[in-house]
Amino acid sequence: MGLDDITRRVSAAEIAAGRAPGSVTLIAVSKLQPPGRVEAVLAQGHAVYGENYVQEAQAKWPAWSAAHPGVSVHMIGPLQSNKARAAVALFDAIHTLDRVTLARKLAAQMAEQGRRPQVFVQVNTGDEPQKAGILADELPGFLALCAELELAPSGLMCIPPEGRDPVPHFRLLRRLAETHGLSGLSMGMSADFEAAIAEGATHVRVGSAIFGARAVG
Ligand SMILES: *Cc1c(COP(=O)(O)O)cnc(C)c1O
Protein backbone atom coordinates (compact mmCIF):
# COMPACT_ATOMS: atom_id res chain seq x y z
CA MET A 1 0.00 0.00 0.00
CA GLY A 2 1.05 3.57 -0.65
CA LEU A 3 2.77 5.31 -3.54
CA ASP A 4 6.29 4.04 -2.88
CA ASP A 5 5.17 0.44 -2.64
CA ILE A 6 3.12 0.60 -5.83
CA THR A 7 5.87 2.44 -7.71
CA ARG A 8 8.31 -0.31 -6.73
CA ARG A 9 5.88 -3.01 -7.79
CA VAL A 10 5.35 -1.31 -11.17
CA SER A 11 9.13 -1.20 -11.70
CA ALA A 12 9.52 -4.84 -10.69
CA ALA A 13 6.71 -5.86 -13.06
CA GLU A 14 8.37 -3.93 -15.91
CA ILE A 15 11.63 -5.77 -15.29
CA ALA A 16 9.92 -9.16 -14.93
CA ALA A 17 8.18 -8.62 -18.27
CA GLY A 18 11.40 -7.55 -19.99
CA ARG A 19 9.97 -4.08 -20.51
CA ALA A 20 11.97 -0.86 -20.44
CA PRO A 21 12.14 0.86 -17.04
CA GLY A 22 9.63 3.70 -16.98
CA SER A 23 7.64 2.34 -19.91
CA VAL A 24 4.49 2.05 -17.78
CA THR A 25 2.67 5.20 -16.67
CA LEU A 26 1.21 4.85 -13.18
CA ILE A 27 -2.06 6.79 -13.03
CA ALA A 28 -2.88 7.46 -9.38
CA VAL A 29 -6.68 7.36 -9.30
CA SER A 30 -7.69 10.09 -6.86
CA LYS A 31 -11.47 10.04 -7.30
CA LEU A 32 -13.46 10.34 -4.09
CA GLN A 33 -10.34 10.43 -1.94
CA PRO A 34 -10.00 12.84 0.99
CA PRO A 35 -7.94 15.83 -0.22
CA GLY A 36 -5.25 15.28 2.40
CA ARG A 37 -4.36 11.88 0.95
CA VAL A 38 -4.00 13.31 -2.55
CA GLU A 39 -1.95 16.24 -1.28
CA ALA A 40 0.42 13.80 0.41
CA VAL A 41 1.00 11.96 -2.88
CA LEU A 42 1.40 15.27 -4.74
CA ALA A 43 4.01 16.25 -2.15
CA GLN A 44 5.86 13.01 -2.91
CA GLY A 45 6.19 14.30 -6.47
CA HIS A 46 3.85 11.93 -8.28
CA ALA A 47 2.72 13.59 -11.51
CA VAL A 48 -0.12 11.59 -13.12
CA TYR A 49 -3.62 11.32 -11.66
CA GLY A 50 -6.93 9.83 -12.72
CA GLU A 51 -10.45 11.08 -12.09
CA ASN A 52 -13.91 9.68 -12.86
CA TYR A 53 -16.20 12.67 -12.51
CA VAL A 54 -15.86 15.96 -14.41
CA GLN A 55 -17.41 18.07 -11.67
CA GLU A 56 -15.27 16.59 -8.93
CA ALA A 57 -12.13 17.07 -11.03
CA GLN A 58 -13.09 20.67 -11.87
CA ALA A 59 -13.43 21.45 -8.19
CA LYS A 60 -10.08 19.96 -7.17
CA TRP A 61 -7.50 20.12 -9.94
CA PRO A 62 -7.13 23.75 -11.05
CA ALA A 63 -5.63 24.66 -7.65
CA TRP A 64 -3.54 21.51 -7.33
CA SER A 65 -2.23 21.84 -10.90
CA ALA A 66 -1.26 25.45 -10.26
CA ALA A 67 0.60 24.43 -7.10
CA HIS A 68 2.29 21.45 -8.79
CA PRO A 69 3.38 22.38 -12.33
CA GLY A 70 3.82 19.37 -14.57
CA VAL A 71 0.98 17.39 -13.05
CA SER A 72 -1.39 15.78 -15.54
CA VAL A 73 -4.94 14.58 -14.96
CA HIS A 74 -6.54 11.76 -16.93
CA MET A 75 -10.30 11.18 -17.28
CA ILE A 76 -10.99 7.49 -16.71
CA GLY A 77 -14.73 7.56 -15.94
CA PRO A 78 -17.79 7.51 -18.20
CA LEU A 79 -18.06 10.85 -19.98
CA GLN A 80 -21.43 12.42 -20.75
CA SER A 81 -21.55 14.19 -24.11
CA ASN A 82 -22.65 17.44 -22.46
CA LYS A 83 -19.41 17.42 -20.45
CA ALA A 84 -17.18 17.15 -23.53
CA ARG A 85 -16.35 20.85 -23.48
CA ALA A 86 -15.27 20.80 -19.85
CA ALA A 87 -13.39 17.53 -20.31
CA VAL A 88 -11.35 18.82 -23.24
CA ALA A 89 -10.55 21.99 -21.29
CA LEU A 90 -9.52 20.17 -18.12
CA PHE A 91 -7.95 16.80 -18.89
CA ASP A 92 -4.64 15.82 -20.45
CA ALA A 93 -6.00 12.44 -21.53
CA ILE A 94 -9.43 10.87 -21.92
CA HIS A 95 -9.48 7.07 -21.57
CA THR A 96 -13.20 6.57 -22.07
CA LEU A 97 -14.06 7.38 -25.66
CA ASP A 98 -16.83 4.80 -25.98
CA ARG A 99 -19.36 5.92 -28.58
CA VAL A 100 -19.93 7.79 -31.81
CA THR A 101 -21.74 10.79 -30.33
CA LEU A 102 -18.90 11.38 -27.88
CA ALA A 103 -16.29 11.08 -30.66
CA ARG A 104 -18.06 13.83 -32.60
CA LYS A 105 -18.39 16.07 -29.53
CA LEU A 106 -14.75 15.63 -28.52
CA ALA A 107 -13.53 16.30 -32.05
CA ALA A 108 -15.62 19.48 -32.25
CA GLN A 109 -14.37 20.68 -28.87
CA MET A 110 -10.74 19.96 -29.69
CA ALA A 111 -11.06 21.96 -32.89
CA GLU A 112 -12.79 24.82 -31.10
CA GLN A 113 -10.44 24.96 -28.11
CA GLY A 114 -7.23 24.13 -29.94
CA ARG A 115 -6.45 21.58 -27.21
CA ARG A 116 -5.72 17.94 -27.92
CA PRO A 117 -5.88 15.64 -24.89
CA GLN A 118 -4.62 12.12 -25.59
CA VAL A 119 -7.52 9.79 -26.39
CA PHE A 120 -8.01 6.10 -25.61
CA VAL A 121 -10.91 4.12 -27.04
CA GLN A 122 -12.68 2.05 -24.38
CA VAL A 123 -13.35 -1.50 -25.55
CA ASN A 124 -16.03 -3.70 -23.97
CA THR A 125 -13.83 -6.79 -24.06
CA GLY A 126 -16.34 -8.93 -22.18
CA ASP A 127 -19.29 -8.04 -24.46
CA GLU A 128 -21.12 -7.03 -21.27
CA PRO A 129 -24.51 -5.47 -22.09
CA GLN A 130 -24.43 -3.06 -19.13
CA LYS A 131 -20.86 -1.92 -19.71
CA ALA A 132 -19.69 1.02 -21.78
CA GLY A 133 -17.24 0.55 -24.60
CA ILE A 134 -16.95 -0.35 -28.24
CA LEU A 135 -17.43 -4.05 -29.00
CA ALA A 136 -14.37 -5.72 -30.51
CA ASP A 137 -16.35 -6.39 -33.73
CA GLU A 138 -17.23 -2.72 -34.05
CA LEU A 139 -13.75 -1.40 -33.38
CA PRO A 140 -12.53 -1.20 -37.02
CA GLY A 141 -15.50 0.97 -38.01
CA PHE A 142 -15.18 3.11 -34.92
CA LEU A 143 -11.48 3.71 -35.49
CA ALA A 144 -12.20 4.66 -39.09
CA LEU A 145 -14.62 7.29 -37.81
CA CYS A 146 -12.00 8.54 -35.32
CA ALA A 147 -9.55 8.92 -38.21
CA GLU A 148 -12.13 10.90 -40.20
CA LEU A 149 -12.63 13.15 -37.18
CA GLU A 150 -8.84 13.49 -36.74
CA LEU A 151 -9.08 12.18 -33.20
CA ALA A 152 -5.94 10.05 -33.55
CA PRO A 153 -6.43 7.76 -30.52
CA SER A 154 -3.19 6.78 -28.83
CA GLY A 155 -4.50 3.49 -27.59
CA LEU A 156 -7.22 1.28 -26.18
CA MET A 157 -8.62 0.91 -22.67
CA CYS A 158 -10.61 -1.86 -20.98
CA ILE A 159 -12.26 -2.74 -17.68
CA PRO A 160 -12.48 -6.55 -17.57
CA PRO A 161 -15.65 -8.17 -16.20
CA GLU A 162 -15.71 -8.22 -12.41
CA GLY A 163 -14.81 -11.42 -10.65
CA ARG A 164 -13.27 -13.10 -13.67
CA ASP A 165 -9.70 -13.70 -14.76
CA PRO A 166 -8.68 -10.39 -16.39
CA VAL A 167 -5.78 -11.85 -18.38
CA PRO A 168 -7.79 -12.98 -21.45
CA HIS A 169 -9.22 -9.46 -21.60
CA PHE A 170 -5.77 -7.86 -21.38
CA ARG A 171 -4.62 -10.17 -24.19
CA LEU A 172 -7.60 -9.35 -26.37
CA LEU A 173 -7.02 -5.62 -25.87
CA ARG A 174 -3.36 -6.00 -26.78
CA ARG A 175 -4.15 -7.99 -29.90
CA LEU A 176 -6.73 -5.39 -31.01
CA ALA A 177 -4.24 -2.57 -30.42
CA GLU A 178 -1.57 -4.38 -32.42
CA THR A 179 -3.99 -5.05 -35.25
CA HIS A 180 -4.75 -1.36 -35.50
CA GLY A 181 -1.24 -0.06 -34.95
CA LEU A 182 -2.04 1.58 -31.62
CA SER A 183 0.71 1.66 -28.99
CA GLY A 184 -1.20 2.65 -25.84
CA LEU A 185 -2.83 0.07 -23.56
CA SER A 186 -4.73 1.43 -20.56
CA MET A 187 -5.45 -1.63 -18.45
CA GLY A 188 -4.90 -2.88 -14.91
CA MET A 189 -6.17 -1.58 -11.56
CA SER A 190 -5.22 -2.12 -7.90
CA ALA A 191 -5.99 -5.83 -7.97
CA ASP A 192 -4.35 -6.75 -11.26
CA PHE A 193 -1.90 -4.08 -12.46
CA GLU A 194 1.07 -6.45 -12.38
CA ALA A 195 -0.74 -8.96 -14.61
CA ALA A 196 -1.65 -6.10 -16.93
CA ILE A 197 1.98 -4.98 -17.15
CA ALA A 198 2.98 -8.56 -18.00
CA GLU A 199 0.47 -8.38 -20.87
CA GLY A 200 1.77 -5.07 -22.20
CA ALA A 201 -0.09 -2.30 -20.31
CA THR A 202 1.39 1.14 -20.95
CA HIS A 203 -0.97 2.86 -18.48
CA VAL A 204 -2.18 1.30 -15.23
CA ARG A 205 -4.96 2.96 -13.23
CA VAL A 206 -4.40 2.38 -9.53
CA GLY A 207 -6.52 4.00 -6.84
CA SER A 208 -7.15 2.22 -3.57
CA ALA A 209 -3.75 0.48 -3.46
CA ILE A 210 -2.11 3.92 -3.42
CA PHE A 211 -4.55 6.04 -1.41
CA GLY A 212 -6.52 3.50 0.62
CA ALA A 213 -10.21 2.68 0.43
CA ARG A 214 -12.31 5.55 -0.89
CA ALA A 215 -15.78 6.89 -0.19
CA VAL A 216 -18.48 5.14 -2.19
CA GLY A 217 -19.53 7.28 -5.14
C1 LIG B 1 -11.83 3.65 -9.87
C2 LIG B 1 -11.20 3.15 -11.10
C3 LIG B 1 -9.90 2.63 -11.07
C4 LIG B 1 -9.09 2.45 -9.80
O1 LIG B 1 -9.64 1.42 -9.06
P1 LIG B 1 -8.84 0.76 -7.84
O2 LIG B 1 -9.43 -0.58 -7.72
O3 LIG B 1 -9.08 1.64 -6.66
O4 LIG B 1 -7.41 0.72 -8.22
C5 LIG B 1 -9.33 2.23 -12.26
N1 LIG B 1 -10.00 2.33 -13.44
C6 LIG B 1 -11.25 2.82 -13.49
C7 LIG B 1 -11.93 2.90 -14.81
C8 LIG B 1 -11.89 3.22 -12.33
O5 LIG B 1 -13.16 3.70 -12.41
UniProtKB/TrEMBL annotation:
One Pfam entry name: Ala_racemase_N
InterPro entries (UniProt xref): Ala_racemase_N (IPR001608), PLP-binding_barrel (IPR029066), PyrdxlP_homeostasis (IPR011078)
Any GO MF annotation of the entry: pyridoxal phosphate binding
Positions of post-translational N6-(pyridoxal phosphate)lysine modification: K31
Every Alanine racemase N-terminal domain range: 18-214
UniProt family annotation: Belongs to the pyridoxal phosphate-binding protein YggS/PROSC family.
Function summary: Pyridoxal 5'-phosphate (PLP)-binding protein, which is involved in PLP homeostasis.
Protein name from the UniProt record: Pyridoxal phosphate homeostasis protein
Key words of the record: Pyridoxal phosphate
Domain of life, source organism: Bacteria
Essential cofactor(s): pyridoxal 5'-phosphate
